[in-house]
User: What shape does this take?
Amino acid sequence: MPRSPYRGRFAPSPTGDLHAGSLVAALAGWLRARQAGGQWLLRMEDIDPLREVDGSAQSILADLQRLGLIADGAVMYQSTRHAAYQAALDVLHDKGLIFPCWCSRADLATADGIHRDGHCVRPADSERAPALRLQVPDTTIAFDDMLQGPQRQNLRDTVGDIVLRRADGCWAYQLACVVDDAAQGVTEVVRGVDLMTSTPRQIHLQHLLDLPTPRYLHIPLVTDRDGRKLSKSNLDRPLDGRPVAVLLRAALVCLGVPVENRPEGNIQGLLESAVRHFDIARLEQVGRLSFALP
Ligand code: GLU
Assistant: This one.
């Protein structure tokens, strides 16, 4: 069977500006897509109004544009995808795998915060909307991450019955992500390693929904020069007032791409050379990537 053409995606949540970590993840994904002669798509994960920061969707998109990371095709907005998520939920419901759940965090405190009963242990409460959970079996999901190697997770022990729709009516990231990766025909997911613990849940959902599983490449944690988490450094708003070529260089160096001494401002030249030189083998043994601004 011919292999599907490469399709990657960058899927930011509009909860703040593009920071060094998301910039590096976006760049790594863009480079993989360009090297494969494939497509790179954008998806705005705007399904959680409580966490959304006004204007950040527009500012993330504008920053990507300034950095020369141009998507192939229109941006998908998850806020417009309600019907697709509902259809996926219906499939799982018809399989008898969905149950309404009124448990609070406090109810789950004695079980490490994990719901493992396969049904709600609280009486139904007609006054209060329930969350909708997926019954999760005692199963271990294994996958080979392209950078981090073989991974295994027992779903029941580690995550338990998964919330797919919250009590406030918002769709959960896990369901929306799986439905949209399939809808966008994504063949490879490039994202930060902080999301790797979500991958087994997503693979389990793909199996249940009869959707293909993409390859996964989780890039190492990005820290500042001193090894501090980005949230504790001044790199959470790296684009503020800095020339884009400076940032692009810093992100490329972070990814182990040799950067030639080109005149600043030549974004196109930097990106073209990076497509030739980016090599994930250089990242393989690295625990964390260091983002250093001059
Ligand atoms: N929207 C998620 C985030 O910004 C990323 C989701 C993904 O790449 O799967 O953390």
